[in-house]
Amino acid sequence: MTRMINRKAFMIFGLICLLLIMIPAAAFSWNQATHAYIADRLGARVSHANLDEMWGSVAPDFFNYVFDPNLCPGWIADQTQGTYSDTFMKVWNAAGTHAEDALAYGFVSHNEQWGADHVAHESSLTLEHDKGYIIAKEELLLNTPLEEGNSHPTFGEVFASLGMSPYEGEMVAHLITEDAVDIMLGKDADPLLGRKLATAAHARSSEFPVLLIKAFGEDYADYCFGGDMATAASVLAAVEEEHRKNMIFLGRAISQPEPVAVQLLAEQVAQVVPEFLGKPLPITEAEFVEIVKTAIFRSMEICADYKAEIDATIEFVANNLKDHGIAYLYPGGERH
Fold first, then answer.
1. Cα separation of 46 and 299, whole Å?
2. At what angle do helices 98-108 and 47-58 cross, to 10 degrees?
3. What is the CA radius of gyration of the chain?
C-alpha cells in the first residue's frame, strides 16, 4: 500500500511540474509583486521575518494556474484565498514557530474577505466602491482601442476575434492589468521590489511547505484524494515549489528596464493563455505577444493612479490585521 501511494504521489508530482513549466505567476487578484510590496510595508521591516512575510503574502495564489480538475485547483484556491469564508485563517491557526508566524502573517494579509484582495476584487478604496480596483481597470482596458482612434477594435473585440468568450477575455485583461501594476511598482515605487520578491522566494523558510500541509493537507486529502494524505502533501509541496520558481522569474523580470519587463511578461501571458483556454490561438505566439505588449502599455496608462490605491490598501489591511488579532513578536521582542 505504501509503495502504491508513493508511486501515485510521484506521478502527480511529475504532472504538476509538467503543467507549471513556463506558466506565469500572475493570478486573478493583485499580482504577486504587488502583494509583496504591500507585505513589505505591513509588518517586520528588517530581518528574515520580512522576507517570510513577503513570501507568505504571495503564496495563496500558488494554485491559480493548475488546470487539471483531478487536482481540485478551484477548491484549494478558494481555501487559501478565502473566496467565500475565512479558511485562510487555517494557516495562522496552524503556525507555531517564529518563522511560521511571519509566513502566516503575510499569508492572511492576502485574503478576499478583509485583506488586500478584497480591494482588488470587491471594493476599491479610491474609485467607486461597488467593484475592485483591478476589476474596474480591466473593464476599461477591454473597452480601449488597440490603436489610437475609435475606428480601431477594442481589446475586448480583439480577444473575441481570437475565440475567447467574454469571461475568458476578462480574465486575460485581468492578468494584463495586474502585470501592468507590478511593472510600475518595480519601476517607480520601489526599484528594489523585484530583487526583494526573488530573494523572498529563494530564501523562504523551509517550514512553509510543512505549514501548508498542516493547515490544508487533511481537508485537501479528504476533498480531492479520498483521504490519501501522502498524495495531498506531495501535490501541495510540488505546486508551492513551482510557485517559488515563478516568483523568482517575476522578480527578475520587473527588475529589468521597462521595455524588457513588458516583453518578458507579455511572453508569459502568451504562453499561459492557450493552457487557460484549452486550445491554441488562431494566430502565432509572436503575434499574440505583440497584442499583449500593447495591452500592458495601455493598462499602465489606465492604472496611472495605482499608487493611491496601493497606499490606501496598505492602511486598510494593517488596520484589519490588528482588528483580527493578527500579531506576533519580532526578533528582539518588538510586537506588531
1. 33
2. 40
3. 19
- Grid cell, residue 223, equals 476533498
Cα–Cα distance measured from residue 100 to residue 254, given in angstroms and rounded to the nearest whole number: 28
Span 297-317, pLDDT tens digits: 999 999 999 999 999 999 999
Q: Determine what percent of the chain falls in helix, strand and coil, rounding each to the nearest 5.
A: 70, 0, 30
- What pLDDT is attached to residue 29? 59
pTM of the model: 0.88
SS3 145: strand
Nearest to 167 by CA among 138, 137, 145, 134: 138
Handedness of CA 245, 248, 252, 255 (dihedral sign): positive
Write the pLDDT tens digit of every residue in 156-185: 999 999 999 999 999 999 999 999 999 999
Listed residue (165, 143, 157) closest to 277, CA to CA = 165
* Whole-angstrom distance, CA of residue 253 vs CA of residue 311: 23
Contacts of 287 (CB under 8 A, 6+ apart): none
* Euclidean distance between the first and the last CA atom of the chain, given in angstroms as a whole number: 47
Residue 251 is inside which H or E element, if any? helix 229-254
Instruction: Give CA–CA dist 306/296, Å, rounded.
Output: 14
Name residues whose C-beta falls within 8 Å of residue 308's C-beta, 6 or more positions apart in sequence: 126
Instruction: Answer yes or no: are the C-beta atoms of 238 and 16 closer than 8 Å.
Output: yes
Instruction: Report the C-alpha gap between 75 and 32 in whole angstroms.
Output: 20
* DSSP state for residue 154 in the 8-state scheme: B
Contacts (Cβ under 8 Å, ≥6 apart) of 202: 244, 248
CA distance 4 to 43: 44
In this structure, are residues 60 and 211 in contact, taking their beta carbons and an 8 Å threshold? Answer: no
